[in-house]
């Protein structure tokens, strides 16, 4: 199982100059590397969860795994992203609750 090669190619293309090209072999190699990296990090996070008798790997586990494997720069960046994601998710839920309460009040009038 691996990421679709078209997605890998699109991501790679974002950092290649406009006139640059990426060979099929280059995309395939990156696809294999990315798949292996994801499996490596997820395996480490999963082992942590298993030791803690948990079944679900979460974002904090991925951050921990990245750090424990020596990818501290990635762990820091992902931690910042995770914080912003959770903040946005909380705001979204609060807005939905607020909208639902407003709709209920209007239907009573």
From TrEMBL:
GO CC annotation, single: CCAAT-binding factor complex
Q: What CDD domains does the annotation carry?
A: HFD_NFYB
Q: Which GO terms describe its molecular function?
A: DNA-binding transcription activator activity, RNA polymerase II-specific; protein heterodimerization activity; RNA polymerase II cis-regulatory region sequence-specific DNA binding
Q: Which InterPro entries match?
A: CBFA_NFYB_domain (IPR003958), Histone-fold (IPR009072), Transc_fact_NFYB/HAP3 (IPR027113)
Q: Superkingdom of this entry's organism?
A: Eukaryota
UniProt keyword terms in alphabetical order? Transcription, Transcription regulation
Domain named Transcription factor CBF/NF-Y/archaeal histone: which ranges? 1-66
Homology family: Belongs to the NFYB/HAP3 subunit family.
Protein name from the UniProt record: Transcription factor CBF/NF-Y/archaeal histone domain-containing protein
